[in-house]
Specification:
By secondary structure, this protein is of the alpha/beta class. It is built from 53 helices and 21 strands.
């Protein structure tokens, strides 16, 4: 118990009671009053856990003044004082109860009369009064704070102060007769808050109390606590002085009451949840305790790995995780983790890597109060993680921000109090880090988590990831980096690059058994066997002659051993093969499979039609009734999301899919079948194989997972090597990806002023992943030579210029500066292979920009790299060209594509005139995007251009992202000012590609077009509507919406709304803040100096 006294929490009800008359109250003798009070305290201490229900009580908190602040009349008669206090604040219907005026016959008049009588009492009462006052004051160090709180519909009394550190409180009911502050209307709250504010300068709480209240409002009782500690004797002296002071110097009780009642009458009733306040207070203290634990590097990890116990409860509530695996506990308690060293950890797929990263991120956000960046490989995974962590952000008080596609603000908004968790794709993560370095805020980034770290060795994206990590290592020594992967081999190189510790385990929550199938025989993979495999069993399935021709690999036999009661994934080499295999399996299944969850499967079909404007893929229409579907990039985002949800809930039991599913969202299965050891035409890599079979075995559902690789005799030797050889090494692609790698890196280093001369740039390169591996990767040229070549190329292209100084040996040493074009290219993250082409296109567009339609702007924002991969259907091209309006044909003429040329290509005639193929292809893609923006229906556009709907959606996403890049490019070049306003609106159109009224709903992560339309039709027309929605009502209102989805939508909407509100508050404060260069301030500081 604190020195200053315990906190007493009561749950009270607010209702009318028969009030005793003031005369009868005053008539009671002081001795009787004190005795009554002692009996009352005894009753309160014995009161157990009885509860009384209350009726719609607004939460309030009331503390009595320190005794020295009360008129002496109330000091002598405390019970009477409280009764009078109750008379003031008792009614929730009428502020003044039955006393409706300040007239002579009013309640206040009676109070004044009684006060006068009190002043004329015989002197012999003084002795008893002094004793009473002394008793009261001596008790003030133990129990001078009375908290009256309403919590939900129950009542609670906290006797012991230490219980404020506990998540559960003892509840004690207080009988009406014994309750000295029984009725407290919520309208009094403001009065006591004002009281607290007016006395806040009298003293601060103790260190422990400061920690407890660091992030929650302080209460008056804290101030009283300090006063009672610092001046225990002054109370009696104060009382004595008041008793002997003259009437002229004493403010009458009537004035006190009159002032208070008037203030209360004007006050608005604040509405807040006392339950929520208690929870926040508890959370706040636990966070402060965790901070101290982390700072002291103690072995005591606090309630939940240095985090509040609420985090553990949220994991149980949201994810059903009650206990960590042994390896997770070991990893979180590593000395290197406690000391915040960089860490790489590697475990098999489904081992639970992400949970460790999430706990470390929460420690950084809540305890160390710094921002966190999480880098994920794909947009779909970013959105899945945003949905999953938004609920934690709402409950624990941090922001979750999406940086994917065209979403994300650069630089990020600087938050006033709450910290941010940035969840980004590899490309957006790089841009985010650049913007933080440029604004000098990189040190605010406390932790960077990289999932699928092995992707650092995969082409362009690997080069971008390497650049991002290298910049963080070079510019911020306080930022911790955590990397995780299931498929790492040459970890030593990565450790050296990241200066990191390494942790690995072979743990899997579910045992995985690997099998190979050759003809009718199944072999188990066994590393101890001579040839790496041992005989397991023969397939026993009766095949008809027709079925043997349809299914030579016995896929039907393998899947029917598992489905429909368990789930199964069949990985196929190509997208077309996925669809064919799904149809073939369904043709071979009996009609019994149609009955399994028949109603739910019909709902999935209806839902697919709803999100596709009444359209449904003919393959899915035939396969879904059997519980089978295909899954690849040819599906739209809406379709993929619905099918994944149906698979996760067991409505669908079999997916035929491509290898991208293995690296994407987490969809585990009881059995994983690899249709062939190929991805497209390339033989399977060990990393890919491990990722695919890693999907086998669902933690908490399956006791074992199985993988079966189907192979032909001709591939047997290669497959045996595949299952026995180590994982492939990770190698830097920084130099291989020339324009997107090393040149982009140098341009940004000089643009951000990280390194501006040869020595600094060379030193930076030595610290990259490429620098670590240069002896292996560089055979013909040295790192110095490659550095010089790259800088020369950038200078010749007009992106850099250099200052040359000649030394004694006539060797020049150069300082480099970025040009305007160079800055625009690096700020817009434009591929340097296209930056000069983009500049020419935009410059040419200014000469005759056609704004009669969007076609010209769309052409300028169509991605160059997708144009080079496009193969137009010339008949469709010609048909679309003929349907253009004169203004739109003018756009084609301006970019250099004539109707004559398209007509000749369509008819197969020879063409002598040379035309740039990339321009022709780019215009064709522009036609697709233009048609899509007009019709906003992917299905009709897919049919019109004879292209997969998934490809069209990918084109749309790429165009939205590139449009955002072009916008940033134009912002750096004054001559392109006209594009800024135009491209901002176009980017939004390309991002959502829906009618304008649905855009606010689609800003919420996880809400796609079909769902947005459902919500809009149900009356949820804005972000505010969604943020205030009840998930249970949403489930009943919106068809085919699961409870988990409803909760995620509401959480994401709340998070987005909070982010916008915080940004506006920051903007307001910035506007009202006195500028640092204000003349008066500058002059004053100069004088002081």
């Amino acid at each position: 118990m604190d020195e200053g006294g315990s906190r007493i929490r009561r749950r009270v009800s607010v209702r009318k009671r028969n009030r005793p008359s003031l005369e009868s109250v005053f008539a009671a003798s002081p001795a009787t009053e004190l005795k009554h009070r002692d009996e009352k305290e005894d009753e309160e201490m014995v009161a157990g856990s009885r509860r009384r229900k209350t009726v719609d009580v607004q939460p309030v908190e009331v503390q009595l003044h320190h005794l020295s602040d009360w008129p002496e009349f109330l000091v002598l008669f405390p019970t009477f004082g409280v009764m009078i206090h109750n008379q003031i604040i008792d009614s929730e219907e009428d502020m003044f109860g039955d006393y409706d005026s300040f007239a002579e016959n009013s309640f206040l008049a009676q109070v004044d009369d009684l006060e006068q009588k009190y002043l004329q009492l015989p002197e012999h009462m003084n002795h008893a009064t002094d004793h009473a006052t002394e008793d009261l004051c001596s008790e003030s160090d133990k129990q001078n704070t009375l908290n009256v709180t309403a919590v939900g519909d129950c009542t609670a009394l906290n006797i012991d102060d230490h219980t404020k550190n506990e998540s559960r409180h003892e509840d004690v009911s207080v009988e009406p007769e014994a309750d000295i502050l029984y009725d407290v209307p919520s309208s009094q709250v403001l009065f006591f808050e004002n009281l607290h504010n007016s006395s806040s300068d009298l003293g601060g709480p103790s260190t422990e109390e400061k920690d407890w209240n660091s992030s929650c409002p302080k209460t008056v009782n804290e101030e009283l606590l300090v006063n009672s500690r610092e001046q225990p004797q002054q109370t009696v002296e104060s009382s004595s002085k008041i008793r002997t002071s003259s009437d002229a110097n004493r403010k009458s009780l009537k004035d006190h009451l009159k002032s208070t009642m008037t203030g209360n009458a004007k006050a608005q009733t604040p509405i807040f949840s006392r339950t929520k306040q208690l929870k926040e207070t508890l959370l706040s203290e636990e966070i402060n305790v965790a901070k101290k634990t982390i700072e002291s590097s103690s072995d005591d990890l606090g309630p939940f790995y240095s985090l509040p116990s609420k985090v553990r409860d949220l994991y149980v509530q949201f994810k059903g995780i009650e206990k960590l695996y042994e390896w997770q506990h070991t990893c979180l308690t590593l000395k290197s983790v406690q000391e915040r060293k960089n860490l790489i950890y590697s475990l098999p797929t489904s081992g639970g890597k992400t949970l460790v990263a999430e706990i470390l991120m929460l420690q950084e956000l809540l305890c160390r109060r710094r921002d966190v960046l999480m880098i994920l490989p794909y947009v779909a995974i970013v959105q899945e993680k945003i949905s999953g962590l938004s609920s934690f952000g709402i409950e624990l008080g941090f922001f979750v921000e999406e940086y994917a596609g065209s979403k994300g603000k650069f630089p990020p908004i600087k938050r006033r109090e709450k910290k941010s968790l940035y969840i980004a794709t590899i490309e957006k993560g790089h841009s985010l880090v650049n913007s933080l370095i440029e604004t000098g805020r990189i040190s605010s980034l406390g932790l960077v988590v990289v999932d699928e770290l092995h992707m650092i060795g995969e082409g362009t994206r690997g080069a971008i990831l390497e650049m991002t990590l290298a910049k963080i290592l070079y510019t911020s020594k306080t930022t911790q980096i955590i990397g995780m992967s299931a498929t790492l081999n040459n970890v030593e190189d990565l450790q050296k690059f990241l200066q990191a510790e390494y942790y690995t385990s072979q743990f899997r929550p579910v045992e995985l058994k690997e099998y190979l199938k050759i003809n009718d025989t199944i072999y188990e993979v066994d590393s101890r066997a001579e040839n790496g495999m041992t005989f397991s069993r023969l397939l026993n399935y009766k095949y008809s002659d027709t079925l043997k021709k349809m299914d030579p690999d016995h896929l039907v036999a393998l899947v029917t051993e598992v489905i429909p009661n368990y789930s199964c994934l069949v990985f196929c080499p190509t997208k077309k093969n996925c669809e064919n295999v799904a149809e073939m399996i369904c043709k071979s299944l009996s009609k019994e499979y149609l009955k399994h969850k028949e109603k739910e499967k019909q709902e999935v079909i209806m839902n697919l039609k709803n999100v596709s404007g009444g359209n449904l893929c003919r393959v899915l229409k035939r396969t879904i009734p059997f519980g089978v579907a295909y899954h690849h990039s040819g599906l739209t985002s809406d379709e993929r999301k619905l099918l994944e949800e149906a698979y996760s809930t067991g409505v669908l039991c079999l997916f035929t899919c491509t290898s991208t599913l293995a690296a994407g969202v987490n969809l585990p299965a009881r059995r994983v079948i690899l249709r062939a050891p190929y991805v497209a035409k390339e033989f399977l890599k060990r990393n890919q194989y491990k990722q695919m079979i890693g999907r086998a075995g669902r933690a908490g559902i399956d006791s074992v997972g199985e993988s079966i690789l189907i192979l032909q005799e001709k591939d047997k030797q290669q497959v045996l090597e595949l299952i026995s050889k180590p994982l492939e090494n990770c190698y830097s692609h920084l130099v291989q990806e020339f324009t997107k790698g090393i040149q982009t890196l140098f341009l940004s280093l000089i643009g951000l002023k990280i390194a501006t001369n040869l020595d600094d740039i060379y030193h930076f390169m030595s610290g990259t992943f490429f620098g670590v591996q240069q002896k292996v990767l560089l055979k013909e040229k040295s790192l110095w030579e490659i550095t010089m070549e790259s800088l020369r190329y950038l200078t010749e292209k007009g992106l850099l210029h250099k200052d040359t100084m000649y030394g004694s040996e006539e060797e020049f040493q150069s300082n480099f500066h970025i040009t305007k074009l160079g800055r625009a290219s690096f700020k817009g993250t434009i591929d340097l292979a296209y930056c000069d082409i983009l500049y020419r296109d935009l410059k040419k567009g200014l000469e005759g920009l056609v704004l009669e339609s969007l076609l010209h702007l769309i052409y300028l924002t169509t991605p160059y790299d997708m144009a080079s991969q496009c193969d137009p259907d010339w008949m469709i091209y010609f048909r679309q060209f003929n349907q253009l309006s004169p203004a739109e044909q003018n756009v084609a003429a301006l970019v250099g594509v004539s109707e004559n040329y398209i007509g000749k290509k369509a008819s197969g005639q020879a063409i002598r005139k040379k035309v740039d193929k990339n321009i022709v292809n780019r215009l064709y893609l522009s036609f697709i995007l233009y048609t899509l923006l007009k019709e906003t229906n992917i299905w009709s556009v897919s049919e019109k251009f004879n292209m997969p709907r998934g490809y069209i959606q990918s084109l749309l996403s790429a165009a939205a992202a590139f449009s955002s890049c072009v916008l940033h490019f134009c912002e750096e070049l004054e001559e392109f000012w006209v594009y800024r306003a135009l491209l901002g609106e176009l980017t939004k159109k390309l991002t959502y590609c829906v009618k304008a009224e649905l855009i606010p709903l689609m800003e919420v992560t996880g809400v796609l077009e079909g769902r947005a339309r459902q919500l809009y039709n149900a009356g949820y027309k804005s972000l505010t509507h969604l943020a205030n929605a009840n998930p249970e009502v949403l489930i009943r209102t919106i068809d085919h919406l699961s409870r988990r989805q409803a909760k995620q939508i509401v959480s994401s909407a709340k998070m987005l709304l909070h982010e916008k509100a915080e940004a506006l508050q920051e903007e307001v404060e910035e506007l009202l803040r006195l500028p640092s260069d204000f003349p008066g301030i500058v002059a004053s500081s100069t004088e002081k100096a």
